[in-house]
Amino acid sequence: MKKRVGIWIRVSTEDQKRGDSPEHHLDQAKTYAKLHDYEVTEIYDLTGVSGKTVKDHAECQRMLMDIHRGHISGLIFSKIARFARNTIELLQFANFFQEHNADLISLKESFDTSTPAGRLFFRIISSMAEWEREEIVDRINASVETRAKMGKVMGGIPYGYQRKGKDDIELHPEESIVRRKMYELYLQHNRYGTVARILNEEGHRTKRGKKFSDMAIKRLLKDPITKGVRRTRFTKVGKNGQPELRDSSEWFFHKSPQIVSKELWESVNDIINKYESTKTQPFNKKLKLFTGFLHCECGGKMYVPSANPKYTCKKCRRKIPTEDIEEIFKSQLKQFLLSEDDIQKYYESSQTGIRDKERELVVIKEKIEKLKTKIEKLFELHENNQIETERFNEFYKEPNEQLKQFERTIPILESEIKIMNYPDAERSRYQNNVS
Asked: Which of 86, 118, 175, 365 has a CB 3.0–4.6 Å from the CB of 111, allowing a cystine?
């Protein structure tokens, strides 16, 4: 009866780039099996899987089960480093195979673990494979530090930015507007959760398409990259596998494209630091100046709900941002309280705000078109039976919700722009009175 064996294939991504294909390893193993009159019963494909640990991989578990039930009595692999690189795991595998009268067969090292000499050689080679892996890790760490000193881009690209070439970043035309808005919203509300809720309700999402959380807003606001200071090598993997900050003496700093001014960044972070140092949270102001006095065009009174920082009509649910109403009120007083220079400064500031909102409006309209295209493609796939109904509902839910949120945001932005343009008439009237 022929010996039944399995073939273990594990080729790293880097090896594949260098032309070392999984097919090549498979052909070598099959040739060896044919020469020794072995019957190849199973193939365990772990292509691209790291050799640091393989015991929990589904293919490895399947192989161990086949050994345990006697389905195969040997495993052929190209070399130890392709089987696994963790010394402890390799020795555990060797003991497991020995207990089940099965053989480990390495083509390159030419050993058989069924003999004492083979087991000794296996331990020596396993230690060398472990040493090789640690050397590679050391070289990678040294390379990472060098790239960090040079300011090369490593890892993920921060929200608000996009890759420029291989090693640099530039402003993302859409995300940078949203990230700047985070600072403006935080100055108004002083709450991470409120900022996250407003952005989510408007339809904005993270780079991964997820909704913003209060902790994500906190992290984005505190990152100095938005004021033009990019940090590298400031985090490391902690004992629990989660990222943690390095000592600040190990950080490197580089210049980056600005999203907000240094003054705006410091104003926001001064507030954050104040609340963090006192371990308090800002008071949630519910009482607004014009509550109950402001009337909508439909005749209904307007109030500010605790969950929404806008004057809202109880009858028709029309909304106007509180800060816009208060700015209109202030503009009515300017001809009595402010000089012409003050009016000019306010006008220039309002024009900047108008341009920001106009750019945001353009971005949202572009996103709406992209979402509509995406939804149309989903319907087309569903109609052609290329996607099941259950999966269609899963894929359709999120973009449809985001589309509706953007469509609700459009008229609000348009009304905000209209209201912000309103002081122009007051400014002209003031200047005419002065002249």
From this structure: 118
